[in-house]
Structure formats: structure tokens, C-alpha cells
Amino acid sequence: MTTQEILQAAQGAKLPLALADADTKNAALEAMAVALIAAQDKILDANKQDVENARGRVSDVMLDRLALTPGRLTDMAKGMREVAALPDPVGAVLRKIVRPNGLLIEKTAVPMGVIAIIYESRPNVTSDAAALAIKAGSACILRCGRDAWASCHAIVEALRAGLRRVRLPECAVSLIEDTSHASANELMTADGLVDLLIPRGGAGLIRACVENATVPCIQTGTGICHVYVDKAADLEMAVDIVENAKTSRPSVCNAEEALLVHRDVAAQFLPLLKARLVDARAAAGITPVELHLDARAAAIIDGVPAAPQDFDTEYLDYKLSVAVVDDVDAAIAHIAKHSTHHSEAIVTADAAAAQRFTTCVDSAAVYVNASTRFTDGGEFGLGCEMGISTQKLHARGPMGLAELCTYKYIVHGNGQVRGGSSAKMSCYTNK
Amino acid sequence: MTTQEILQAAQGAKLPLALADADTKNAALEAMAVALIAAQDKILDANKQDVENARGRVSDVMLDRLALTPGRLTDMAKGMREVAALPDPVGAVLRKIVRPNGLLIEKTAVPMGVIAIIYESRPNVTSDAAALAIKAGSACILRCGRDAWASCHAIVEALRAGLRRVRLPECAVSLIEDTSHASANELMTADGLVDLLIPRGGAGLIRACVENATVPCIQTGTGICHVYVDKAADLEMAVDIVENAKTSRPSVCNAEEALLVHRDVAAQFLPLLKARLVDARAAAGITPVELHLDARAAAIIDGVPAAPQDFDTEYLDYKLSVAVVDDVDAAIAHIAKHSTHHSEAIVTADAAAAQRFTTCVDSAAVYVNASTRFTDGGEFGLGCEMGISTQKLHARGPMGLAELCTYKYIVHGNGQVRGGSSAKMSCYTNK
């Protein structure tokens, strides 16, 4: 099918999904999980092909992301069942207003309609995204990178078999066949056919969507996350938090990339930092963190001199930019200039400094005395997520099921007309 | 100042506004209202110029929209005081989560930052938009049409005098000096400098924003609103609702443009409709409604034959498209095809039909037994509004103060790191 045919077909899934109750959607997710495991051999065969074709062309990290195993497939099925176990977001009354004229106004969560996801080479995104979209009552159009196409195709075939079993239209989950830029652009401009577009990938894809998308779009962005160690910080706590934020999983978007230290505690704190992140790790035979120091930090400890662009770099690696700042306002100004508005933290025992930081730092998640690594749907208690939004419109931070819905106002009356008894006259003067 | 300079200057207002408490913002609105009235002579002089220059070039309706009077200025000041009287949306805790690890997560309403509004020739939008933006804690960049520029400039000068009086930065409210397309495009693509763009104007402006904006944008759109009279309708109530929806103010977006009637009641209902909307009005010497009838309706009453495009036309006039449909699903399908997703109503005493209609009709407001004319921030009890959003992302329906804010997650801990005690080890394997 062409991209246009897939877009049209998905329209036919909107009403059946909007009308499906929680039990039906949960049964669909269960059937999809069962079908995924039943198709294990086909999926692994297809994946083997993908991996063979990609070998040599992509990095080992990418190959690892692409490769599926029976264990990974089991995790994917488990993930779908976890989504089934979450409360149904559709139909939730977000606000209830009773007006003096008797109108009952219910702001009600409803499905988006059709959600398109453009992603790259992780086949597991296929089942994750489909499960979240279906549970949120929306059809799902998937467009993967070409390296993963055979795998994703086999997965989608299985998911559609599951949908058929519960008599939901299989066009509720579709994979775009064309993996060229043309199909991505077609999705970005499918006005009226795509209600929400979520790009999940590198900076180039995000930028292309921002520049070209005419359909509603949410960016799940990069994270240049900061930790600021205030003069009133518990320095042991600060070292623990920085260590966790930087090293517990450096490759993810909520990992710390830059450290700011108040000048009054820099001479005391930076040696503690170096001892934990560099020396202790080297002594234990694990990768030490490479500290990229501004001039003031370099006057206190040894490290690599920071280049100006270091503070605008998402390392995703055992590297950390370090700067000494004059006070909390200087930290706030630095963050305003360099942050990607994902997650930032202050370590301080001073409530006033904490409040100034949380008020003035303009990011999706702002922490006081905790690691930035908690920015995650599961860690926030929101359940599974589609990604972390770094934009301000619609959804900010972890995008769970609620954020994959829109709302409408459902208004019940018993014949109310505007303007009451005088309406029939006043209206005639058009005022 | 150039548009670029204005955009840069507005950045300097973000923190002072984010830090301003409700009392400060309300004092600012009061000072702005006082200053507006104090500058009445200057504003009316400027407006006189605008009206002189526009005369002959624009329609009488446009001239009327453009013209200010002492009474209209008083209304504008009153409007600002009404916004001051509303609750402060900033700082509201939208959701509070306490995690097992002790993290306190507060999803908190926060200002957007900088809100840009592109509008046309209504000078009163200037003070309305500025008041809403300031109350929502955001700086406001206004770009009016050239016909209204002198008036809007005089108004903005007054508003800035008010801001200075309460020691808020006057760049919190700015008017773009350039009224050419270039400045509109500059706002649409001011990535990182405009946090929210709201176009308020005709279809051409909205389309330009959808196609060209790379900054976050909300459309306040047009309304092709439908009323569906079900076979289970109270027909007297239906006539009252259709009359109100069509004739109480035909020029506004929540007015009815198309009527759908169930075939089982068409023969009974349509003559009632014609009696009320055509004959009674003609007899009373007021403009009768021109009924544009599809073939099935035309077989029952007299009227103008409907052209196919009539059902896609926002008349904003005493005209109504009328079609007979087979059942509620046919009405839903017709609406899906022709609606602009603003407001639709069903008149019925059948709860099942009502529920099917409210579930399946994909519009910002869906009514059961009430007029579409209630889609309005004031009528919903939300206070003043910036417009009616017809998009699904972020805000749908009336955009009040809450919808002019974004949110952030403010997280308080006491040293929490992710992964608990095992984090230091598990992290080293990057899993």
C-alpha cells in the first residue's frame, strides 16, 4: 500500500477505536502480545536479515539496538501487557462545570485519532508505540528506518493478527512501506489525516519535523541536563547526585552533561568530585569520567580544558563539563543559555535558593536534591511513556497515556439557548 | 526597534514576570487600565487617523471594528480589570505525586515565556491579549494589521506606562513596528524567542501560520458548526436551539452553519423551521434566514437549492445549509466530512443516540440539547479567553488563562539517586 492509502485506511480505524471500551482495548493488547510471541520465528528470521544487511554499514551500538532475541521479544510482549494494566485514559472527566443556567460541561479526555511515529532502528519501538496508541484509543501509523524494516514489518503483521482476533480493524496499526525521506515528508504534511506526529530520533529528524511539519507534532528531544551545586549544598549528597546523574546511564537523555558549582564551595567540592568520578573509578578498573573544566574549575582540579562548545554538547558518554559560577542567578543564566529544557537539578539546603531555581529554570523537570535521572514515565509513576517532550505545548516531560489524548467539552443541556429570554430580540440587532 | 530587537528585549521580561506574584500582576493590570483611560485623547486621535486612512479601502464592517469610542475604551479597561479579578493560573499544582522513594513530584502550571499574537484590525485585541498574557506570567508581542497600527501603538504606549508604574519591565508588552508580511514571518520562525504564537484572523493568516511557523502555534479557527435534529428530538426545543444557534449572532464562529435532520422527523420539523426562521422573521420585518436545502429537504419545504460547497461554507450570515440524513451515524459521517471541529449539537431525548454523537463527533465542544453558541470562555465559566482553539494539541475550545500556561515538574528530594543502593554497580554496565 502507498503511504497515502495507509493514511486513508487509518481513518477507518478511528471510530471503532473511539468506541472501544477499556476491556476491548486491553483484550486487543493481550491478543497482540500473544501473536507477537507466536510469530517469534518469523520475526527473528526477518531481524536476522536486517542485521546481516546493516552489518558494516552501521556502528556496533546501532547493530545492538537493531538485534532482537527471544528475550527481547518476551520483554516487548511484557511491555504491551504493562500498558494493558494501566488505567484507560479515554473518557476521564478532567473538569466538571455546572453553570447557573443548568448546563453540565464535562472536559473529557478523548483519543487523538491517528498518531504517527517516525523512528529509526529500534524494533521494540514498534510494539511499544502501537500499545500506547491503541490504549489511548488512537490508530497508529509507524514509519521506521530502513535498517529495521523487515523486523518491524514482521512485528506489525503479528500485531495486526492480534487485532483481527478481537475484531478491531487491522488498519489500527500500520507500517509505512516506503522508508525514504519522501514518506516522512508525506506524514509531516498529511493535514487532516495525522492528528499527532511524534518523531523519535536524532537531531536531524527533529529539525526536519520542526521545519516541515504542518501536522501537529511533539518533539521528544535531546537532553543537555545540568546539576548546580549551591553554596548551601550538602557536598556528600551533591557528589552522590552528580555521580548518579552522570554515570548511572550516560547514553540516555536524562543523564547529566554539565555541572555548575558555586564559587564558595568549589575548592571543597571539586576535589571530592574528582576523587569519586575519576580516581575511584580508575582504581576500580572502570571508565573514569572525563572532566571538561572551565578556567575557574581548572584552577582547582586537573582535567581537560573545556572548549566553549562543550557546554552545548550532549556527550551521552563518560564526559562532564564543569564550570564555577558566582551564585544561583549565574547558574540560572548559564542554564537558560545552554539547556535543552529537559531536566536540571539544584543541590542545596537553602529553601530560598531552591525556590528561585525551580521558578526561574525553564525545563520540563526541575529537581531539588535529587538526580536528573528520574525524568521518566515509570519513575514519575505515570506508567509507560512514548518519550520525553522538551517542548512547552501540550505535553512537557514524560509523555504517558494521558498526554497521547486530547480532550473535548461534552455539554449536556435541556434546551438552553444563549442570551436567555431576551435572545430572540437582542439577536436581531446582531450584538 | 526592529522586530529582532523587540524579540530580544522581550526575553528580559521573562524572569521578572515569572517571579511576579498575583498581587504584582494584578496591580500591573490595574495600572495599565488606569493608563489606558488617562491616554484616551491620544488613543482616540490616533484611531481617528487610522479610520481616515482606512476609509474607502475597507468595508464598513471593518471600519466599525476599527473605530474606537470613549465607551469602547472604557470597556477595554473594564476587560483588563476582569482579567485581574480571575485567579492566578501560575503556580497551580495540577498533579501531586509522592513516590515510594520519597520524591515529591508536583506538576505545576508555569508561564509560557513569550506569547506572540498576530491579529488584524480590532484595536481592543491589544489590551485583551496583553492583559491575558501578563496575568499568565508571559511577555506579550503584538503584531497588528497596518490599518490599526496607530491606534494599537497609542494603546501599547499607555499599557507600557502602566507597567513602568509598578516597576515591571515595559518590554513585557511590545508592538511590532513593521506591519508587512516580513514581520509576521519573523515571528513565525523566531525559534527560541517565541514560546507560543497565536494567530487571530482570517483563513489566509491561519494557513500561513500552519505552513510556515516553526515556533509553537495555536490556531483559533473558523467554525462550520452543525446542529443535528434526531428522530427522538423534542421538535419545539429543536426549533428554539436552531434559531438561537443560527440567528443570535450569525457573524461569530460558534454560530450554526448547517442543519441535519433525521428523515423520520424531517416532514414534521422542516415546516416548523421555515415558519420560525423565515416566515415569522419576514412578518416581523427582520432579515429572514436563507435556507439552502439539499434535495431531500427541498422536497418538503421551499428554499434555495444547496450547492455542494454550501456544506463547506462558513456563512457568518443569515444563511443555513439544511440536509436530511438517514440516522445519527449518517449525521456523524456528514459532520466528520464537513466540520471544522469547533462546535456541534444533537437535539434528542434518546440517551444512546446522544452518547454515540458525543463519542463519535470529533469537535472541541459537543452539545446535547443546547445551542452551539455557548462555546465561549465566559459562558463556560473559564473567564476571559484568547480565542477558541480548533486544534487538538495543547488547548481545545476556549483558551483561557490556564491554556496560556505550560507546566513543569518540580521535584523535591533529599538526595535520591536512581537505582537505589545498587545504582553504583549496575550503572557501570550501562544498563
Outline the structure in words:
Chains A, B: It comes from Gemmiger formicilis. Chains A, B: This is Gamma-glutamyl phosphate reductase. Two copies of one chain form a homodimer. The first copy, chain A, is an alpha/beta fold and 431 residues long. Chain A has two domains: 3-220 and 386-411, Aldehyde Dehydrogenase, Chain A, domain 1; 225-374, Aldehyde Dehydrogenase, Chain A, domain 2 (3-Layer(aba) Sandwich). Helices cover 42% and strands 19% of the residues of chain A. Chain A is built from 15 helices and 16 strands. Chain A has helices spanning 3-19, 22-38, 40-54, 60-66, 70-85, 124-135, 149-165, 181-188, 203-212, 235-247, 263-283, 295-298, 328-338, 351-360, 423-426; strands spanning 93-98, 104-111, 114-118, 139-143, 173-175, 196-199, 225-229, 256-262, 290-293, 304-305, 319-325, 343-347, 365-370, 388-389, 397-398, 405-416. In chain A, strands 10-9-11-8-7-12-13 form a seven-stranded parallel sheet, sandwiched between helices. A four-stranded parallel sheet of chain A has the order 5-4-3-6, sandwiched between helices. In chain A, strands 1-2-16 form a three-stranded antiparallel sheet, with no helix packed on it. The longest helix of chain A is centred in the middle third of the chain and has 21 residues, at 263-283. The first copy, chain A, is globular, with a radius of gyration of 25 Å. At the A-B interface, helix 1, helix 10, helix 14, strand 13 and strand 16 of A face helix 1, helix 10, helix 14, strand 13 and strand 16 of B.
